[in-house]
Fold Heptosyltransferase I.
Amino acid sequence: MTDQYNSICILRLSAIGDVCHAVSAVQDIQAAHPHAKITWIIGKVEAMLLSGLPGIEFVIFDKKQGKAAYNQLKACFKGRKFDVLLHMQVALRANLVARCIPAKKKIGFDKHRSKELHGLFINKRIQAQSEPHVLEGFQNFARAIGAKCGIPSWEMPYSVEDESVASQLLCELGRVFVIAPAASKEERNWLPERYAKVAEHAHKQGFSVVVTGGPTTLEQTLADKIVSQACCPILNLVGKTQLKQLLCVLKQAKLVLAPDTGPAHMAVTVQTPVIGLYAHSNPQRTGPYLYLDYVVEVYHNNLFKQKKKTAKQLPWGTRVKGADLMSQISTEQVVTMFDHVVNTERL
C-alpha cells in the first residue's frame, strides 16, 4: 500500500508496555507521512505517559465510562472520515471501538493473530509474520502504509520539570539500579526476598538501589517486603512518581530489573538496559525488545512440561499457567545475569 494519507487513526488502547512498543512504529509513520494528521485513540492511563508526543492528537477512551465512552467517540468523529485506521488491538473492547471510527480503510492483524471477532471490524490485514515480537507486529502496520522500519527508536515526551523531579529524587545516588518488581498480575511477580538479595549484591558492586512502582496496595506491599528484607539501603519511590517522572527515573538509571511489566518497556524506550524475568509468557514475543539477551526465563521449560511441545511447535504466544512459576527463577541466575550485563554494558 503506497497511497498518500492525509489523516491516519491509530487504535491502541492499552497497556503501558504495548503503547511503548507502538510509539516507535507511529514515529516511523510520521517520518513516512510528515504532512498527515495522526489521531491516536488510547486508554486514560496510557495517555498520561504519552501526552505531548509531537504531532499526535490523542483521543482518550475511558473504559470505566461504559457505553458513554463509545457515544463520546461517535460524537467526536461525527463528520470526519480518516483515510486509514490502523486497528492495533484484537480485544473485543477495541473491536467495538473500531466500529465508532469512520475510515476508508481499516487495517487489522493477519488471520493468525485475529481473535474476538477482529476480522469483522476491518477490511484489510497486515502481512503475516513468523514468530514476531509484539513490537514487530506494530511495525507491520507502519509498513502497510508505506513506512520503513528498522531498529526501533523512540522520542518519548517528558518535560524539563519531569527530569528535574527525577534528578531530585535520585540526588547524589550515583550509579542507580532500579527494581520495578510488580507486574499487573501477582503470579508474575518474583519473590521479595530474592529481589532483596539481588539488591544487596548490587549495593556491594557500588550501585544505589531504588524500588519503583505505582500506588496500588499490591505494589506498595511488595516494595515494603523488599526493603524490609534487604540488608542494604533502598530508596522506595513506589507511589511517589507520575508516569513521566518514572520514565525519567528509568532514564537516569544504569540498569533495571523487572518482570513482565510496563516499566520494563518504558526503560527500553530511554535505552536503559533491562533484566527481564519471565515465566508465563514467551520473552521473544513480549520481552524488553532491545535487551532480549538479558532475560532470565523459565518459560520454555514450563511450556514443554505442560504442553509436551516447544514454542515453535505451538501457536505463537502460547502462555503457561501456574501460581508459583516465578519461584523457579533462582537468585543465583539473576545475580549472574546482573554481573553479565554490568560487564557487557560497562556500567
The chain has a mean pLDDT of 97.
